[in-house]
């Protein structure tokens, strides 16, 4: 099959995809808008017919006088022309607003589809995959802003209907009033223009998508200039000059290929098609002029001229709709690709139905009784060769506090992601009292966990909800929320806010406020404690005290020990003042457990833990002795 045919078939496929999403706007709206577009296509044709007739009847009406039948017929046909003109002005706004409504309805559903796809995976892999994120961002940008979105593509497709009705109308006028070959020639010229431009638009929209990386860089750099955190550093480090020149460079490297493409895709084809079009049009006009001398009446001449000019002007309008369709469908493709990627992601946690490796496995996840065991667990991130864990064998004692220590990149956060089943091990299993956690439905297992990640969420909602989201079913347990806030030393800070616990924690909302980094961390810790109170016996805190001052850290551990009594807690920290609070310490190195034991045992072992501990403590030796710091 030739490339030409393949392109044509692909194009038809695209049109078909749009037709398939049209019903999402609702049958009545689609039919209504289609009718409006047909009417809007027909009215200019009626106008041309009526005004040409007005022109043709003027001589006879003038001769006959205002009482003559010719004058009355002139007025009648003039009324038709006026009605066609006024009709266009009345109907056109409906086309716009209904088109907008259609776009919003379809884009709204598209966004829901995108959200569903983003939330569907049980694991987090697609949201950490660069390619999937590119599709997600491209789709979200277009769908959210609704400028050239799938919904606009649908409205654009229906708007094309108006253009075709017009073109057919003009061609029919020319064929009836003059000659079929002139009608055919004009149709060919218009479609030729359209074909040339549409191809260019399609390629251009693909190129824009391919240049997503450089465009993101520009967005990122522009964002730096207006965001407070970077804004501070830009001023302190004098980075303003660097920012403007980098932004300029980024613009240039993004625009250079676009300029080349624009010339290649728009300018040269435009000249080519313009020359062919002009030659053909001139021939039609020349032949029409010749024939008109003997054959055409004044009405016929006006009909042919107006219809020809009207048809030629259409080639200006087609690109509008074509552009909407091309870019809008690129966004639709991105939505589809993202949804497919989510479904086909390798080693994904998709399984909500429990797998049963052992007939003895209970139906409901029991509270862990003795151990959580990483049994020969190996793991590499999808599409990565490097193993983060290589047959990791680690036992976390239930009902006690375990700290995980290791250098940056040792795999501490990855360990938590595996425990929370955001990823699945590529080999081995995580067992609770001997049972593989994959035996249970993901959601049931997760209900046993209260996890606060290093990059915990800062919800732009009330302080109470920020804590209550640790156990959404119990989010209205006000005393529980207050107790959690007290436990992390935030009760007074939150009470002082304008609306106390009901104050939105964002300045984006009127009456809202923002918190300091340490205060935010304490709110996140309160969330984990609230989860614990409501039946999550395993609490995992990734760098829980990184932003806490010494007093807050000490206070936190006083309360924490009491509140988490009997619970299984996992602390990941680089702070040895935090780590030594744990009953059991595990040192991770190169994907394996290098050392484990109590703080005192590991100090006595004088291995990696002791070295790291001394390194941190040495920084205080001018003030006091390491042992004192540690205590
Ligand atoms: N989503 C991801 N995709 C690919 N590789 C990843 C991903 N997340 C982490 N890694 C890699 O996995 C390794 C372990 O990362 P992890 O975040 O678990 O380390 P960590 O011990 O928590 O580090 P830190 O102390 O800096 O927080 C690192 O080499 C990191 O680059």
Strand content: 5-15%
Structural domains: how many: 3
- The CATH homologous superfamily of the largest domain is called ABC transporter type 1, transmembrane domain
Q: Separation of termini?
A: 79 Å
What is the 3D form?
elongated
CATH architectural designation of the largest domain = Up-down Bundle
Total number of helices: 21
Counting helices, strands and paired strands, the structural category is alpha/beta
Task: Predict the CATH topology of the largest domain.
Answer: ABC transporter transmembrane region fold
Bound molecules: adenosine-5'-triphosphate
Q: Tell me, rounded to a whole number, the average pLDDT.
A: 83
Fold and architecture overview:
The protein is of the alpha/beta class and 631 residues long. The chain folds into three domains: 332 residues, ABC transporter type 1, transmembrane domain (ABC transporter transmembrane region fold, Up-down Bundle); 176 residues, 3-Layer(aba) Sandwich (Rossmann fold), CATH 3.40.50.300; 80 residues, Rossmann fold (3-Layer(aba) Sandwich). The strands form two sheets. Strands 6-7-8-3-9-10 form a six-stranded mixed beta sheet, sandwiched between helices. Strands 2-1-4-5 form a four-stranded antiparallel beta sheet, with no helix packed on it. β7, α17 and β8 form a beta-alpha-beta unit. α2 runs antiparallel to α3, α3 runs antiparallel to α4 and α19 crosses α20. The longest helix has 56 residues. The C terminus is likely disordered. One of its GO terms (molecular function) is ABC-type oligopeptide transporter activity. Belongs to the ABC transporter superfamily. Siderophore-Fe(3+) uptake transporter (SIUT) (TC 3.A.1.21) family. InterPro entries: AAA+_ATPase (IPR003593), ABC1_TM_sf (IPR036640), ABC_transporter-like_ATP-bd (IPR003439), ABC_transporter-like_CS (IPR017871), P-loop_NTPase (IPR027417), Type_1_exporter (IPR039421).
């Amino acid at each position: 099959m030739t490339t030409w045919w393949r392109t044509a078939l692909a194009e038809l496929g695209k049109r078909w995809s749009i037709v398939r999403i049209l019903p999402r706007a609702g049958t009545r709206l689609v039919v209504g808008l289609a009718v409006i577009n047909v009417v809007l296509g027909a009215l200019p044709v009626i106008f041309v017919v009526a005004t040409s007739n007005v022109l043709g009847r003027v001589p006879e009406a003038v001769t006959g006088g205002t009482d003559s039948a010719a004058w009355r017929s002139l007025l009648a046909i003039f009324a038709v022309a006026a009605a066609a003109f006024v009709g266009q002005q009345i109907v056109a706004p409906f086309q716009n607003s209904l088109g907008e409504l259609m776009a919003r309805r379809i884009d709204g559903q598209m966004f829901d589809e995108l959200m569903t796809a983003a939330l569907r995976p049980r694991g987090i892999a697609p949201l950490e995959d660069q390619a999937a994120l590119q599709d997600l961002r491209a789709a979200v940008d277009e769908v959210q802003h609704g400028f050239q979105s799938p919904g606009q593509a649908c409205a654009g497709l229906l708007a094309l209907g108006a253009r075709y009705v017009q073109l057919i109308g003009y061609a029919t006028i020319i064929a009836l009033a003059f000659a079929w070959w002139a009608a055919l020639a004009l149709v060919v010229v218009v479609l030729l223009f359209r074909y040339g431009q549409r191809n260019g638009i399609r390629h251009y929209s693909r190129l824009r998508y391919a240049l997503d990386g450089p465009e993101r860089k520009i967005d990122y750099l522009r964002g730096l200039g207006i965001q407070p955190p970077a804004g501070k550093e830009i001023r302190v480090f004098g980075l303003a000059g660097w920012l403007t020149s980098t932004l300029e460079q980024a613009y240039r490297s993004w625009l250079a290929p676009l300029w080349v493409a624009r010339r290649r895709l728009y300018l040269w084809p435009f000249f080519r098609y313009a020359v062919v079009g002009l030659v053909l049009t001139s021939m039609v006009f020349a032949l029409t002029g010749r024939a008109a001398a003997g054959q055409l009446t004044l009405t016929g001449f006006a009909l042919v001229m107006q219809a020809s000019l009207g048809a030629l002007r259409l080639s200006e309008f087609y690109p509008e709709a074509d552009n909407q369709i091309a870019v809008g469908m690129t966004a639709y493709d991105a939505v589809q690709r993202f949804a497919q990627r989510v479904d086909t992601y390798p080693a994904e946690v998709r399984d909500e139905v429990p797998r049963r490796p052992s007939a003895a496995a209970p139906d409901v996840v029991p509270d862990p009784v003795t151990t959580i065991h990483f049994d020969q667990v190996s793991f590499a991130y999808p599409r990565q060769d490097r193993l983060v864990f290589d047959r990791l064998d680690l036992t976390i004692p239930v009902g006690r506090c375990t700290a995980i220590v290791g250098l940056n990149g040792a795999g501490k956060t990855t360990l938590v992601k595996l425990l929370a089943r955001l990823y699945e091990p590529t080999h081995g299993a995580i067992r609770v009292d001997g049972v593989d956690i994959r035996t249970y439905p993901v959601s049931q297992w997760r209900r046993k966990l209260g996890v606060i990640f290093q990059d915990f969420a800062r919800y732009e909602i009330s302080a109470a909800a920020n804590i209550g989201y640790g156990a959404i079913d119990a989010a209205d347990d006000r005393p529980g929320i207050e107790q959690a806030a007290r436990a992390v030393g935030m009760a007074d800070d939150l009470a002082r806010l304008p609306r106390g616990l009901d104050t939105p924690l964002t300045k984006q909302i009127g009456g809202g406020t923002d918190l300091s980094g340490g205060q935010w961390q304490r709110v996140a810790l309160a969330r984990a404690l609230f989860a614990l109170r409501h039946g999550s016996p395993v609490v995992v805190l990734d760098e829980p005290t990184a932003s806490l001052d010494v007093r807050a850290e000490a206070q936190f551990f006083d309360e924490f020990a009491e509140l988490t009594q009997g619970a299984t807690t996992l602390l990941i920290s680089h702070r040895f003042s935090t780590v030594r609070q744990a009953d059991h310490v595990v040192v991770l190195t190169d994907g394996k457990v290098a050392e484990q034991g109590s703080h005192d045992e590991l100090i006595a072992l004088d291995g990696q833990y002791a070295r790291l501990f001394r390194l941190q403590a040495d920084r205080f030796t001018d003030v006091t002795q390491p042992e004192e710091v540690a205590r």
